[in-house]
Amino acid sequence: MDVNLDQLQGFVTVARLGNFTRAAEQLYLAQPTLSRQITALEHDLGTELFHRARGGSTLTPAGESLLPLARRMLADAESVRRELAELAGLERGRVRLGATPTLCISLVAEVLSAFHAAHPGIELHLSEQGSRRLLDELASGELDLALVTTTASDAAAERFTVTPLLVEELVVVSSAGDSPVATADAMSLGEVAALPQIVFSSSYDLRAATDAAFRAAGLVPDVVLEGAEMDAVLRFVERGLGVAIVPAMVLIDRPGLRSARLAAPELARTISLARPADVTPTAAVGVMQRTIAVTATAFAERAGETMRPAG
User: Using one digit for the tens of pLDDT, what is the confidence trace for 188-197?
Assistant: First the structure.
């Protein structure tokens, strides 16, 4: 038996419309071509599928038996076609991801490593900016996805689909080579303010959050160096220049740092994944979203109490 999908599609269309001429028009075929397809199908099956009459065509008992099977086979074929198209899409194309500097040296490094290992043919673009700038790039079509903090993403809920991923504590880090800066696991903001401190560039969302916390507590921190980027801050702390308030995530795989949790008040941030609300993600972007979610969950498990899945 040599049944093909064109024959099955022709059969299902004639069965639905009850007319060869109208079925041929819908399939963009000449009516004799469609008739030959159905005749060949009947020959291969060894039975007539339609009662043909001037007023139209109706199914024979054999045709009625074949109809649900033909529909299922066509649906399965369409499903396979879509899956193959998605697989082909993951052999080429691009994903444009934005993330804050803190995330670029931690979560994003793991995400891009995993994604590239699985899909080396996908071109990856990365924008390292503050959350507000990332949302601007997302809105202008420059990015497909952006990892941002909650403060910025709250105002963007109408334009973007925002999915919270992680709730992360901010901790105080110091050099592992120096004496501990705290006698307990947790420190108050007052205790932190009295220590020589390295603070970030004013463009960092993190700098704004810590400045606001000190102001609210009526404290002025002892700043020994300001204006540095994340990687530089961590290196300066490792060398004993001072302490810094950083997201717990950056401590992973950094044995040169020790940390103390903040108490009264605890400072935390929510990391969210944003994408344009009115754009359907490509297959590659969809896989990147899943890779980010899985990697974020793994990070939360590694960080213990200082990080947990959002929600």
Answer: 999 999 999 9
Query: CA-CA distance, 75 to 277, in Å (whole number)?
Result: 29
Q: Which domains does the chain have, with CATH numbers?
A: 5-89 (1.10.10.10), 94-165+275-296 (3.40.190.10), 168-268 (3.40.190.290)
**Structure-token pair, residue 34:** 């469609």
Rounded Cα gap, residues 294 and 310, in angstroms: 13
What confidence tens digit (pLDDT) does each residue in 18-66 have? 999 999 999 999 999 999 999 999 998 999 999 998 888 999 999 999 9
Nearest by Cα to 196 from 227, 215, 173, 176: 173
Confidence check: pLDDT of 158 > 80: no
**Residue 11: alpha-carbon gap to chain centroid:** 42
CB-CB contact of 287 with 189 (8 Å): no
pTM over 0.70: no
Checking DSSP bridges between strand 186-187 and strand 257-262, what pairing results, if any?
A: parallel
- Cβ contact 89:278 at 8 Å: no
**What are the CA-CA distances from residue 86 to residues 97, 141, 281, 285, 287 (Å)?**
20, 22, 12, 11, 10
Helix (H/G/I), strand (E/B), else coil: 28: coil
Amino acid at 120: P
pLDDT at position 280 is 83
> What type of residue sits at position 301?
E
Helices (H), 90-201: 101-104, 107-118, 131-139, 150-154, 189-193
User: Of the given ranges (91-100, 145-154, 237-246), which has the lowest mean pLDDT?
Assistant: 145-154
pLDDT digits (tens, 9 = 90+) for 79-126: 777 666 666 666 777 899 999 888 888 899 999 999 998 888 888 999
- Please answer whether residues 160 and 135 qualify as being in contact, where contact means their C-beta atoms are separated by less than 8 angstroms: yes
Distance in angstroms (rounded) separating the CA atoms of residues 285 and 245: 33
Of residues 254, 265, 259, 261, the one with CA closest to residue 180:
259
* DSSP category for residue 71: H
